[in-house]
UniProtKB/TrEMBL annotation, chains A, B:
The keyword Ribonucleoprotein does not apply. Residues 2-69 form the HTH gntR-type domain. SUPFAM superfamilies: GntR ligand-binding domain-like, Winged helix' DNA-binding domain. Pfam families: FCD, GntR. It comes from the Bacteria. This is GntR family transcriptional regulator. It comes from Azospirillum formosense. Keywords: DNA-binding, Transcription, Transcription regulation.
Length: 225, 225
DNA sequence: CTCAACAGTCTTGTATACAAGATTGGTGCG
DNA sequence: CGCACCAATCTTGTATACAAGACTGTTGAG
């Protein structure tokens, strides 16, 4: 499904999409340099690229951190995705013949992940659907833009205690694919709009994000001396 | 109209939007470092950021160059703009009250630039309209995305001998503002779609971009010894 | 005269050294 | 005991040195 990342950037992005990197996680240059077996220079370059893509940010002389979108930014990110994804479905009718089959297969994978219950691959697959759909339209700019936006909304979901029902999302995806199979782009656009709104509405954007979420989780079973 | 840029990136972007930087222009690190009075390190950082934004690219050990979009990339860039800008107009009805007035003033500026005939500020203003419109909707993600896409399409226009009629473009802009003033977002979206198509159709994307365009221009009057 | 090989120069690629600020842990005063 | 202050340590910010490759101009053979 997802090819293994060759660059530091891809590696970080895919870790976020897969839920392995949480918002607020510190990414020390020295640490990363050791992990990837490269010098700090390369790590810095990668971090700066990710920064311009809005994935990480730097706190002066403290380190690089996975972004923690504010409620406002969260809303804007979802809004941007809605505008672009529905816009694509409404304006572009250029899906190649095999796209629907591929998307159907993807939804099938989602279903399986739902049953096996592996939360990481599930999160990853649910985000990947949108990226694959964008990719199928063949516009690399839109694909790249949506990849970054999806990474951000994935972070948002991690931050605002999403009660997102993965099964419902997958059902939406299946519905969109069905409509596309019928050539009903307008219907697909409508359903996509509802879908993204549903995901957004499943968030508790009023709740301030818990800065200690990570720690709390680690310490909940019982801390050692 | 356009506040003076404080970073190297903004400076390059605004030079492109204003038509002062042509596609293919070489941006040497040492040269830029001297111009901006900073070290090569900072210049490299800025260039790498611009690279991830698709504005410049690096040719190994030869230097940084303003991108020269291929015909395929050109079409994709216009398509992306169409999807996003019409999507915004269709989905978002969140223009603040004073937005229309500001946009009207902007179109008025365009008109003046048309008469005075200053080609640089004209190009800049025509692109700025779209950026300002995006900005008015208040979604920073979409604004940033459109700024970069607009920079790219500006480069495309320089590269593919656009016969774009600046006056017609400005008329389109005026029309869009009028529709927005009436709250007719759907109509504005339709006109925006036509407008961007018109600009794209004004290009000769079949013609291979002339890699010597810059030189030819310089040498046309008669070369000195 | 043409062309291939080569030396010199220029430019980026990468690592490393050091400066500057932030954090942490300790110490002493009240 | 609590708190402010201070030293030690860690981390990024920035510049610089040097390596590696690309380009240019020259030179010499055919």
């Amino acid at each position: 499904m997802t090819q293994l990342p060759d660059s530091i950037e891809d590696s970080v992005i895919s870790a976020i999409l897969g839920g392995r990197l949480r918002p607020g996680t510190r990414l020390g240059e020295a640490k990363l340099a050791e992990v990837y077996g490269v010098s700090r220079t390369r790590v810095r370059e990668a971090m700066m690229r990710l920064e311009t893509r809005g994935i990480v940010h730097v706190s002066a002389r403290r380190g690089w951190f996975v972004v923690e979108p504010s409620a406002t930014e969260a809303r804007a990110a979802f809004q941007a995705r809605r505008v672009i994804e529905t816009g694509m479905l409404r304006d572009l009718h250029t899906l190649p013949g095999d796209a629907v089959a591929h998307l159907r297969a993807h939804v099938e994978e989602e279903r399986e992940a739902l049953h096996t219950g592996h939360v990481g691959s599930r999160t990853c697959l649910l985000g990947d659907f949108h990226i694959h759909l964008a990719h199928a339209f063949g516009n690399p700019f839109l694909t790249d833009i949506l990849r970054d936006l999806t990474a951000r909304t994935t972070l948002v979901s991690m931050l605002y205690q999403s009660d997102q029902d993965a099964a419902a999302s997958s059902d939406d995806h299946a519905g969109i694919v069905t409509l596309l199979a019928d050539g009903d782009y307008a219907g697909a656009a409508r359903l996509m709009d509802e879908h993204i709104r549903r995901v957004e509405d499943g968030l508790d954007l009023a709740a301030a994000p818990d800065p200690l979420a990570g720690l709390r989780e680690i310490l909940s079973p019982g801390a050692p001396a």
